[in-house]
Structure formats: structure tokens, C-alpha cells
Amino acid sequence: MEKEAIVLDVLAKSDAPLKSAEIAEIAMIDKKDVDAAIKKLKKEEKIVSPKVCYYTIKK
Q: What predicted TM-score, i.e. pTM, was given to this entire model?
């Protein structure tokens, strides 16, 4: 599974916005991979940041 898909899956299952470190811990992948996936997903407008350093899926 692609890193972006993993990050989206974790965010979709979460009730609250998550930090990248929390996403990395839940998905059991490296934080720098999560950061790269978040950057790509934000550019594609699939996720949003409701507050600084927290991310959630765009609804």
C-alpha cells in the first residue's frame, strides 16, 4: 500500500485531527515518510490542517 493511502486510511478512521508523529505511530511507518505523504496530500487537497501541525481528511 502506498504511503499516501496509509495516511488517508489512518486519518479517515480518526475522530480527531492528528499530528504527523501520531499518524506515524498508528501506521507504524517512518515519520519522514508520513511528512512526505502529508505534503503530497495537502497539495492534492485531500487533507486539511484545521490547526497548526494537525491534519484531518477533507470532507
A: 0.92
Q: Which of 53, 54, 9, 59 is nearest to 29 (CA)?
A: 9
Question: Which residues pair with residue 19 across a beta bridge?
Answer: none
The three three-digit cell numbers of residue 49, written as one number: 490542517
Degrees, nearest 5: CA angle 37-43-20: 35
Task: Set out the domains of the chain in order of their start, with CATH numbers.
Answer: 3-57 (1.10.10.10)
* Phi, psi at 52, each rounded to 5°: -50, 130
In the chain, the largest separation of any two C-alpha atoms, in whole Å, equals 28
Instruction: Report the pLDDT value the prediction gives residue 59, as an integer from 0 to 100.
Output: 80
